């Protein structure tokens, strides 16, 4: 079954963890043979932006020694055959342009979502 994972909330648990738990579980599911794909919407479209670097993140005297590498996670998903989409309207609302996004991320308009959804057997929203 083909599953679309909709990710809306960005940077969930990135202070405590070295990755976003939703992107991590999608990678693990694909590794186990699941036909899982990703739609980034709202604030999560920022995950598709190139050049993110969370190294140097610290709170008081405590440094995050294993910072999230979201861009690498997105690239890995695409390399493993996952379709990764970003809602174009949300990308534009955040001042990003197509050239700012990781290669392989596909744009979809908000009006085009019903058509995209129809290509999947299951849709999960995180």
Explain how this protein is built:
The longest helix is centred in the first third of the chain and has 11 residues, at 21-31. It is built from four helices and seven strands, in the order E-H-E-E-E-H-E-H-E-H-E. It has a single domain (2-125), classed as 3-Layer(aba) Sandwich (Hypothetical Protein Ychn, Chain: A), CATH 3.40.1260. With 126 residues, the protein is of the alpha/beta class. Strand 3 and strand 4 form a beta hairpin. The strands form two sheets. It has a five-stranded parallel β-sheet. The radius of gyration is 15 Å and the shape is globular. The mean pLDDT is 89.
Task: Summarize, please.
The protein is an alpha/beta fold and 126 residues long. 25% of the residues lie in helices and 21% in strands. It has one domain (2-125): Hypothetical Protein Ychn, Chain: A.
Give the tally of structural domains.
1
Please give the alpha-carbon distance between the first and last residues. Answer: 18 Å
Number of helices: 4
Structural class: alpha/beta
Q: Number of DSSP strands?
A: 7
Order of H and E elements: EHEEEHEHEHE
Overall shape: globular
Provide the fold topology:
Blueprint: E1 2-7, H1 21-31, E2 35-40, E3 58-59, E4 62-63, H2 70-79, E5 84-87, H3 88-93, E6 106-108, H4 113-117, E7 122-125
Parallel strand pairs: 1-2, 1-7, 2-5, 5-6
Antiparallel strand pairs: 3-4
Helix pairs in contact: 1-2
Which keywords apply here?
126 residues; alpha/beta; Hypothetical Protein Ychn, Chain: A; two-stranded antiparallel ribbon; 7 strands; 25% helix
């Amino acid at each position: 079954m083909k599953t679309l994972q909709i990710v809306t909330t960005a940077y969930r648990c990135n202070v405590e963890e070295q990755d976003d738990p939703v992107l991590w579980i999608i990678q693990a599911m694909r590794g186990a043979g699941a036909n899982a794909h990703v739609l980034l919407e709202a604030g999560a479209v920022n995950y598709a932006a190139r050049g993110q670097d969370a190294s140097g993140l610290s709170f008081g005297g405590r440094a995050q020694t294993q910072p999230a590498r979201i861009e690498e996670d997105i690239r890995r998903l695409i390399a493993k055959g996952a379709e990764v989409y970003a809602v174009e309207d949300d990308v534009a609302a955040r001042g990003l342009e197509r050239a700012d996004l990781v290669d392989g991320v596909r744009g979809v308009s908000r009006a085009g979502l019903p058509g995209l959804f129809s290509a999947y057997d299951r849709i999960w929203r995180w």
